Amino acid sequence: MTSKDDLVVGVDRTPGATVVTATGELDANTARALDERLSRLDATSGVVVLDLTGITFCDSVGLACVLAAPHRGVDLRVVGSRQVARVVALAGTDTELPLFPTVAAATGRQ
């Protein structure tokens, strides 16, 4: 688990999916901690579920960090908090970054 100021990032590898959980504030001061974790993942990681339900604040730098992951060949599925959903919608990236309601829905294990 990685902690950077007000952001805590954990990774749990399960068969067929890697779940990255981030809690706290995702902004210019903390996005690097999440980016470092996501940069270690690639197409061989299977489905990557980014659980952002514990994010209490997200700015454009945090959103850019999340949007960069699929460009690394990662099959990214995002579960977002209300704050994340709001930033995604305001930025007009909701078609590029669809949000799932739960980790189970994102992995297809409902």
From TrEMBL:
Transmembrane segments: none annotated. Pfam families: STAS. Signal peptide: none annotated. Residues 7-63 form the STAS domain. This is Anti-anti-sigma factor. It comes from Umezawaea tangerina.
